[in-house]
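Changelog note: in this version the structure field was regenerated for every chain. One regenerated record is shown below for reference.
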Amino acid sequence: MMKQTVARGSIVAAAALALTGLGAMATMMSRDTTPVIDLSEDVVIDTTAALAVMESQLLVTQGELDRAHRILDFSGRYRIPADMAARIYDHAVNEGIPPALGFQLVKIESGFINSAQSYASAIGLTQLVLRTARSYEPMLTRDDLMNPDVSLRIGFRYLKDLLKRYDNDLELALEAYNKGPTLVSTQMDEGIEVKGRYSRAVLRGM
């Protein structure tokens, strides 16, 4: 019974330190009287809540550390600056696609160059045609597509929509991203093999 009381008292004391701060604890320790630990039920309930908050904060911190680790891993793997890797990672997560897929898409499409432009007038990191981009944000300009955040946000959202359209068939969605869904649908109707080099190149890197 004595051991249980001491252990219980230690938990309450730890929670008190976290809640009141070091300054309050120092003041309490400087008094001549010995502090009395209140083991009433109300204090136990408050302590439990405090520990739950601390546990939640630890989980958040763990998540942030995991994010940082993965971003640094992608940064080293693709030899790109950490801020670029963070942008790609966060936009992929926000739009609901695997970060590994997002990095491969950007690598194949633009080589991580914001100002990349193709012969087909595709622009930016995810090589969007202005017409396609404006179906998501009608007021966009060509210059906007060289903004990495704009290009990543819309490009990944477009890929996510293609995945829904093709019942999560990643190869078909990637080919539609590259060729356009109209051409892919036409080829499928005509019995032409749609899946080809583009989707294999993206998937190989993952």
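Spot check on this record: Residues 1-79 form one domain. The beta strands are 122-123, 128-129.
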